[in-house]
Amino acid sequence: MATIPLKAVTLTDVRYQRGDSLGHFLAWVSLIPVFISLGGFASHFIFRRDLQGMFFYIGLIISQFLNELIKTSVQQSRPETCILLDSCDSHGWPSSHSQYMFFFAVYFTLLTYKGIGLSGVRQKCVVGFVPWPFAVLTMWSRVYLGYHSVAQVFAGALLGVVLGGVWFWVVNGLIVCWFPMIEESTFGRKFYIKDSSHIENVMKFEYDNARAARKKCSQD
User: Fold this and answer.
1) What residue numbers bound the domain in which 116 lies?
2) pLDDT by residue (tens digit) across 23-60?
3) Are 120 and 53 in contact (CB under 8 A)?
4) Is the preceding omega at residue 94 within 30 degrees of 0, hence cis?
5) Quick check: 4 and 71 in contact, CB under 8 A?
6) Segments in the chain forming alpha helices (H)
7) What single DSSP character describes residue 90?
8) Surface-to-core class of residue 30, CB atoms within 10 Å of its CB (0-12 exposed, 13-18 middle, 19+ buried)
9) Would 2 be classed as within a structural domain?
10) Strand, helix or coil for residue 50
11) Three-class SS state of 208
12) Backbone angles phi, psi at 50, to 5 degrees
């Protein structure tokens, strides 16, 4: 009976050369998209359930779907270093990690500039800058570790920037008009889905309301 070759799930299977401290660090950096998806957005859905965050994540899913579609169509091989990584059975152009991180960076920065959660210009500049070093490090890690060529990571980064900007416009220029209807729907009421788009500083709003509720409880 012929044996069927096995294929590993490569979500967290990031390899580096033994003893390479920089490679070890970049291997963890390469997992940032996983941390964002499983940690950041999962906790957001559980505890906040805000429509802006939900459509942010939907955009990332669409971006990754398009990445797989393009990879399947172009079918560009990974660099020769993929032989050592057992990843040559998948295509490399464009890099999905780079696309994910640059989509995230663009959308996050635009959302920060729009004022969701922040009101001061300095705060917006500082917070909006946060994801960009991680995006660049992720792009570099994919080349350093041998999973992609330079052209493949730059293609992913460029596609992520374009898709991130386009999706932000779609959500905040078109879909946002439907947010009140989603919020008031049976689904929205049952699962406590909320829209914070109309609030200038969400964090201050939630902070003030939490303090007011605590004071009311104390008085009662």
Assistant:
1) 21-219
2) 667 777 777 777 776 666 677 677 778 888 889 889 99
3) no
4) yes
5) no
6) 21-29, 32-35, 42-47, 51-74, 82-85, 96-114, 121-129, 131-144, 150-173, 179-184, 186-190, 202-219
7) S
8) buried
9) no
10) strand
11) helix
12) -95, 140
Domain total of the chain: 1
Residue 41: both structure tokens together? 């957005």
Report the distance separating Cα 101 and Cα 105, nearest Å. Answer: 6
Burial class (CB in 10 A: 0-12, 13-18, 19+), 73: exposed
User: Would 186 be classed as within a structural domain?
Assistant: yes
- The residues pairing with 50 across neighbouring beta strands, listed in sequence order, are 194
Q: What is the pLDDT of residue 220?
A: 67
* Mean pLDDT score, 186-206: 81
The model's pLDDT over 51-106, given as tens digits with 9 standing for 90+, comes to 888 898 899 999 989 998 998 888 777 776 666 655 566 777 888 889 999 999 99
> Which of 98-120 are b and which e, b meaning 16 or more Cβ less than 10 Å from the residue's Cβ?
bbbbbbbbbbbbbbbeeebbbee
Is 141 part of any domain?
A: yes
Please report whether residue 8 resides in a domain: no
30 close to 141: Cβ distance less than 8 angstroms:
yes
In this prediction the pTM is 0.80
Question: 12: Cβ–Cβ under 8 A, 6 or more apart, which residues?
Answer: 31, 34
